[in-house]
């Protein structure tokens, strides 16, 4: 690496651009191998820490980079351009750091400081564990099956979580659970997971997905996991989590968090589509069938399709940049508009890769080329919350209420 190790990205735009330009091809060099074998890219996160990227969304006062959404978007796009699975894990860490930094009143100061310090000094990763076999996604409602029981000055957790993205390397698990009380409370219990085996945490390596195969999104069993009392970082009555019971601060925080999530995930999948776009442009420039006697790029129908892809990606760029800028200025899009942004950007990204596949034919579907991996990865965009049915139903209700 030509750059010296960094703990924070430099403020110079030129220097930042150079760092990100170096990073993308380094991640891309191993992406196909990790995807093929379904292995977790531990070395990628060591590299991200060396560049100072893992703590970039940690507040400056806590030693991090204090990145706003526009800068975080640039970083996620650069990482995803090399390896989408790595970018997904980093995105989840950024979202948790943003939430912790914003909700200072709810997180005990010492616990918050420990999470941030570990990110800055060790490159520690954090993610939320929410989805369960019976509950499904908490976004659809219902009490979690994971139970926290208070015993003296500790909590004991028991539960089963799905899609624990990044679990092979996570240092912290923000576990969504309910208390074992006559009137249960629900919320976040912070579970430390050091590199050594943690008593009670068992990972079931079940992740065998079509896309994002290197994300390590396995199942996690919590079997009598004990945490300090202060690690119940944000637990409330169920009514306090419902929209009708939320305070204005919670509403504002949720809108901000929704914008961060949609813009970062949108940037990730847009970057996958851009990688596909780069590949197909090179392919049609170089591919010259004997029956044609010249490159495919000379055909008007090919030029038209490439132009359509460019239009889809240009629309994504404008929408994502606008949402990031508005959020950094303190006026994030509404929850409904963020949902429509996700619907549009991910739909455009999927369509762009599908058009690239149409032009490439069998070459694009071959595992010898990256286009089929980009297609598998970009399809995963449909799964993230909010999902398309919820987005469109909310938009339809709002439109009909006018």
Structure description:
This protein is of the alpha+beta class. The chain folds into three domains: 13-124, Butyryl-Coa Dehydrogenase, subunit A, domain 1; 127-236, Butyryl-CoA Dehydrogenase, subunit A, domain 2; 246-401, Butyryl-CoA Dehydrogenase, subunit A, domain 3, CATH 1.20.140.10. Helices cover 51% and strands 14% of the residues. Strands 1, 2, 3, 4, 5, 6, 7 and 8 form an eight-stranded mixed beta sheet that branches. The chain is globular. Mean pLDDT is 93; it is low at 1-7.
Summarize this, please?
The protein is 51% helix and 14% strand.
Topology:
Elements: H1 13-37, H2 42-50, H3 69-82, H4 84-102, H5 109-122, E1 125-129, E2 147-151, E3 154-164, E4 170-179, E5 186-192, E6 201-204, E7 218-228, E8 232-236, H6 238-241, H7 248-286, H8 300-328, H9 335-360, H10 362-365, H11 371-379, H12 388-401
Parallel strand pairs: 1-4, 2-4
Antiparallel strand pairs: 2-3, 3-7, 4-5, 5-8, 6-7
Helix pairs in contact: 1-3, 3-4, 3-7, 4-7, 7-8, 7-9, 7-11, 8-9, 9-11, 9-12
